[in-house]
Amino acid sequence: MSAKLIDGKAVAEKVMSEVARGVERLKKEKKIIPGLAAVLVGDNEASKIYVRNKRIACEKVGIYSTQELLPGTASEEELLGLIDNLNKDPMIHGILVQLPLPSSMTNGNPSGMNVQKILSEVAPEKDVDGFHPINLGKLFSGMPDMVPCTPAGIIKLLESINFDFNGKEAVIVGRSNIVGKPIALLLMQRHATVTICHSQTKNLSEKVKRGDLVVAALGKPALIQEDWIKPGAVVIDVGMNRLPNGKLVGDVDPKAASKASFITPVPGGVGPMTIAMLLSNTLEAARRQSS
Ligand code: NDP
Q1: Among residues 183, 192, 191, 196, which one has the least CA distance to residue 155?
Q2: Ligand 1 centroid to 167 CA: how many Å?
Q3: In the chain, what are the domains?
């Protein structure tokens, strides 16, 4: 068997066309241009590229975007002050704080208390990344509102292949707040039976072998092996790992395509969907703030 590729670029373009039409309608009917502010602290090269790609995507669909740059030496107070100003800015309907924040601001813990405190300062209605505790709480209680972009994009990809979630064994590798945990909740809501694995999981290969659906979000190049994949499984590779030679690779060995029925490529799978869902969330935020 050789897996069919799930074309994230094509699905993302479809979402972006829908967003572009929605933006046009909002401009026409309410005279409102959706606005997105990206906050970038320090000069993490990868983050700069992500923020630039988000700006280009905004331009494509007619969303107004700004980049708010703070030096790596900025204090937490300066960042909170900037977020407060953006919360009050009527031109801005969506705010994203590009992660990771510099370690000076996070006490070296990229998902620790300090980061949660900063993300909690974004007004929930402008939280287009879906990381605010209120939005995460809504997702947890089965009332998804602003859903984190990568998990929302994964669901769209699965819908694009008419994946039947009901009763399927879904194995997620990674338990981060931005991918692993929210995708687990979204899959559970669709009646999949979910296993979440992490760095302390024993016999990882045995767990992965159970999956009708495998979502790999661990950030370790090609760690998920071909012979861990159940024949016919659907494999979503979230990983984006830059090798020393500059090549971008996922968390799944590409040879896994010989076992899977469908697999996402890296690049060109989940990545484009994350940006498309960010635009979709920004449009939705603007619609709500205008009604
Ligand atoms: P994090 O580093 O926050 O989380 C990684 C998770 O993987 C943790 O839960 C960790 O376990 C687990 N893990 C690490 N090593 C292993 C291992 N050997 N076996 C099992 N589990 C392991 O990463 P993110 O969730 O932010 O991102 C994951 C990957 O997805 C990265 O490559 C990132 O670049 C990519 N990504 C891609 C996006 C896209 O748009 N395509 C968007 C977001 C992320 P523990 O909790 O025990 O430490």
Answers
A1: 183
A2: 25
A3: 31-123 (3.40.50.10860), 149-270 (3.40.50.720)
